[in-house]
Amino acid sequence: MTHHKSNRAVEGDPEHAHNRGMPLRSDDDELHARVVRERREAGLLGGPMDDPEAAYRRERVEIDLEVGSGRIPTGDVTRRARAPYPPSSYGD
């Protein structure tokens, strides 16, 4: 008595039930180019190797602009006295 099953019984239909699997080696150059392209399409500035100090300065400038325009409230208001959600830029 044999306990071996046919490949079709074990693996399914090879024409429809299988994929080719992962490549043996990833193409790092193609992957890097894809990441750069997708970040540009998403509108993300800088890259993963961006200077942390420069990124901090850019964010600090943006926060100062938002505080100056009143979009970020400041002052001695307690958490309970503040609105539960930040102001929206959408029309009422």
Structural class: mainly alpha
Dominant shape: elongated
Number of helices: 3
Assembly state of the chains shown: single chain
The share of residues in extended strands comes to under 5%
Summarize the main sheet: none
What is the chain-wise order of helices and strands? HHH
Residue share in helix: 40-55%
Rg, Å, rounded: 27 Å
- Chain-averaged pLDDT: 77
Number of strands: 0
How far apart are the termini? 78 Å
| Low-confidence parts | none
How would you describe this protein?
With 92 residues, this protein is mainly alpha-helical. It is 40% helix and 0% strand. The protein has helices at 7-11, 28-41, 52-69. The longest helix is centred in the middle third of the chain and has 18 residues, at 52-69. The protein is elongated.
Give the topology.
Elements (H helix, E strand, L loop, with lengths): L6 H5 L16 H14 L10 H18 L23
Give a short overview.
The chain has about 90 residues and is an all-alpha fold.
Throw out a few tags for this protein:
mainly alpha; 92 residues; 3 helices
